Amino acid sequence: MSEVDAVVNTVKLWLGNPISRGLIRYVYNGSPQSFNKMLEKYAELDVNLNVSEKFKYMILEKILNIGAKSFGKTEKELRSSLRSPLIRRAISNILGGIAEYGIRKPQTTIAPFLVVWNYTRLCNLKCKHCYENASSKRDEDELNTIEAKKVVDEFAEAGVVAIAFSGGEPLMRKDFYEVAGYAYKREFYISIATNGTLIDSETALKIKDAGVQYVEISLDGLEETHDNFRGVKGAFKKSIEGIKNCINAGLDVGVATTITKQNINEVPKLVDMLEDIGVKRFIAFNFIPVGRGKDIVKMDLEPEERRKVLEELYGKLITPNCRIQTYSTAPQYSVVSVNFEGGPLIATHFTNKSAMEMLKGKAKALAEFIGGCGAGRLYCGLEPNGDIIPCVFMPIKIGNIRMNRLIDVWRDSPILWKLRNRDELEGCGECKYKYICGGCRARAYAYFNNIQGPDPGCFVKLEYWQKINNS
Q1: Residue 64: pLDDT band by 50, 70, 90 thresholds?
Q2: Contact between 158 and 109 (Cβ < 8 Å)
Q3: Computed over its alpha carbons, how large is the radius of gyration of the chain?
Q4: Taking the CA of residue 402 as centre, how many other CA atoms within 13 Å lie in the half-sphere pointing to its CB?
Q5: Helix axis angle, 267-277 relative to 235-248, nearest 10°?
């Protein structure tokens, strides 16, 4: 039995059986704040527990000690790692999901691990593929600064781990730094998705000072292609300057590229250029025909084109001494990786180098619990007006933060529970890769108006792409 299989079986045995799950549920008791205090106690931080929490802590301590052994860590190492507020919040998020829902394939967390917050529809570019239909005017019903801070408070109460500010262009809202800084003080992992054109050296330092840990800048090809795609001449040069300014400020920088027929042949050269600049991460975004993207649906890749670019990216990733990590939001990336002998399996594009090393060569069992498309089970989206949506590429309103608690929507939404059930998916539900991939639910919705429909971009089941082209 492999080490990873042993870990999975141990986790299933200890956390998946009714008795241990009941103990975790008793300890967690729907309160991430109280649970976090107990984690602080385990990390040997100065914290006062009430009588009830002290009793629960004795149970939690045993659970964590067994968990440490399962993952090859000593109790001392685990206690040390839990001194990080982010690690504590993540452990609470995952164990809370197990307490509430049990061990699932793939796993659903107690609250969104990540919320992608479309902070505004304001934007200074005119991108052909914009899912948000961004414009030069601010929507009148956008959450104001006070409301935005209340949203951050609610995220903390629910147990969210990370917030990604997106748009539109989030830097066009003057209160971005104030709200991002407020979120950082509340111990969230903060990132921003930006077109980079507004980031001079001073702005890069302001982003860093606000507590942003990761900056993702969009580039949709080399200069001519990018400027054409983004609708503004000179955008490429400004974005490159923004990337360099962020790197010089000491920020962790990634580049996101939406892959289409227009830029697919430029990807290798683009990645090499970014590696030379010092970019640490490249993410190939799945093109979804939503928003303005509906007007360029013919630019979508055919399944075999998608396979080719994913294989090229994975080949780059596993190249010795590679200085840039290459990922994709296409869940089929995990299928490509699992079929590369000896390489690390990519269970989701939210992964990192340490997770890849843990999964290397023997990953499938654990990857089925992490599993591909995370819409509605690991993350959700928030619109500028507070609408809660399963994914930023899936414009289905399932609640509004002004009227509904995020945690209630997360637990009770019928739409989200449909997304979480891989066995009921058309096409994907019959596939041997359903737990590590599951297809892109946003693509299924965009093409078939069915969140449980097939992903026509899949290169395993080509009949669905053929169905589109024959209709």
Answers
A1: confident
A2: no
A3: 22
A4: 12
A5: 40
Tokens of 276: 């030379």
**What is residue 283's DSSP assignment?**
E
The Cα 248–Cα 241 span in angstroms is 10
Distance of alpha carbon 270 from alpha carbon 449, whole angstroms = 34
pLDDT in tens, 322-352: 899 999 999 999 899 888 766 666 655 554 4
**Which amino acid makes up residue 459?**
F
Question: What does the alpha-carbon distance between residue 79 and residue 465 come to, in Å, rounded to a whole number?
Answer: 50
Lookup: tokens for 265: 């042949």
Backbone CA torsion sign across 342, 345, 349, 354:
negative
Cα(42)–Cα(15) distance, integer angstroms:
19
pLDDT band at 39 (very low <50, low <70, confident <90, very high): very high
Residues making up the chain, counted from first to last: 471
Q: Which two tokens stand for residue 77?
A: 């190492």
- Residue 70: phi and psi, rounded to 5, are -60, -35
**Token pair for 301:** 């890749």
**CB 204, CB 245: distance < 8 Å:** yes
Task: Bin 187: left if φ > 0, else alpha if -120 < ψ < 50, else beta.
Answer: left
Query: CA 308, CA 264: separation in Å to the nearest integer?
Result: 10
Q: Rounded CA gap, 185 and 109, in Å?
A: 23
Return the structure tokens found at 4.
């990873």
Q: What is the pTM of this model?
A: 0.92
Query: How is residue 116 written in tokens?
Result: 């992608």
DSSP states of 414-441: HHHHHHH-GGGSTTGGGSTTTTTT---H
Q: In this predicted model, what pLDDT tens digit does every residue of 241-288 receive, in sequence order?
A: 999 999 999 999 999 999 999 999 999 999 999 999 999 999 999 999
DSSP codes, 226-280: HHHHHTSTTHHHHHHHHHHHHHHTT-EEEEEEE--TTTGGGHHHHHHHHHHHT--
What mean pLDDT, rounded, does the chain reach? 90
User: How many Å apart are CA 293 and CA 56, to the nearest integer?
Assistant: 51
Q: How many helices (H) and strands (E) does the chain have?
A: 20, 10
pLDDT, tens only, 171-230: 999 999 999 999 999 999 999 999 999 999 999 999 999 999 999 999 999 999 999 999
Q: How many CA atoms lie within 13 A of 346 on its CB side?
A: 30
